[in-house]
Specification:
The protein is α+β, with helices and mostly antiparallel strands. 26% of the residues lie in helices and 27% in strands. It is globular and about 55 Å long. The N and C termini lie close together (6 Å).
């Protein structure tokens, strides 16, 4: 089972720049999308060979998350839930940032096939010293509560879960090229943000990329559009697949589908792809 997550930075633009070729070549069974910035019908038309659910933001032109499954693949779309606040009304700024979908075994997938829950998450970017950071921290607090509940349910016989997407936070100096210049100065590299992720991992959630590459620098998944960040590989690892322990133990390999050149990119993020044992 191959699961990919990617911030497409606008699915219309990504499609124009070559996303379909990557999708056909990589053929993920499950695709988690962030920053879709389109309605469900538009997104579906740009994902040939996939069935999808998309939750747009209520703020036009912002955010938007989606989950898609490959037609003929091992899993089908099931029940969906949106928003991280467990049914409470969310602020407009938080809309289109959290989509949970129960995936069910497809007909003919085999007796060993299991269902699971996937979450496509797009956390706030934030900006240090501004109300945008307050928005981010408030949203992270809601995510903390939801992650604790999902993990508790998985541990008591509930579904295994993968929460994946653009979390807009690095964990340490191994996750960003220029740690010293950014640490506690720039949003995404603030200790007050990092502590939220570390709480998830200390409670039992698994950072799949880091589990499979415990001592590596990176691999980075995002590069600024400014200057020569991409050419110099001055990147950030801010895209994750975060899994419950049982599911994480089935992870076989991880890769980042980084474009060969700047001009070949179809997003400022690169897809994060993980293969899991059936």
């Amino acid at each position: 089972m191959r699961i990919a997550t990617v911030n497409v930075n606008g699915i219309r633009a990504a499609a124009r720049k070559g996303m379909a070729a990557w999708l056909e070549a990589g053929a993920p069974d499950v695709l988690l999308l962030q920053e879709v910035r389109a309605d469900a019908d538009t997104a579906a038309a740009l994902l040939p060979g996939y069935r999808s659910l998309v939750r747009p933001s209520r703020i036009r032109g912002r955010a938007g998350v989606g989950v898609a499954v490959r037609e003929g693949g091992p899993l089908t779309l099931g029940r969906a839930r949106h928003g991280v606040a467990d049914g409470a009304e969310e602020p407009d700024a938080d809309s289109g940032r959290w989509l949970e979908v129960d995936l069910e075994p497809a007909r003919g997938a085999g007796a060993g096939a299991d269902g699971l829950t996937v979450v496509s998450a797009y956390l706030h970017a934030g900006r240090a010293g501004t109300p945008k950071l307050d928005e981010k921290l408030a949203h992270l607090a809601l995510v903390d509560a939801r992650m604790a509940r999902l993990l508790a349910e998985a541990r008591t016989g509930g579904r295994q879960v993968i929460m994946a997407g653009d979390l807009n936070v690095v964990r340490s100096e191994r996750d960003i090229k220029n740690w010293r210049a950014n640490h506690n100065r720039v949003s995404g590299v603030l200790d007050v943000e990092i502590e939220h992720l570390e709480e998830w991992f200390s409670s039992g959630w698994v950072d799949v990329t880091r589990a499979l590459n415990p001592g590596a620098q990176g691999p980075y998944t995002w590069w600024s559009q400014r200057g020569r960040a991409f050419d110099n590989d001055a990147g950030w690892r801010i895209d994750y697949q975060v899994a419950t322990p049982t599911l994480a133990s089935r992870a076989l390999a991880v890769r980042v589908d980084r474009a060969g050149t700047y001009d070949e990119r179809w997003s400022d993020h690169a897809p994060l792809v993980v293969d899991y044992a059936d």
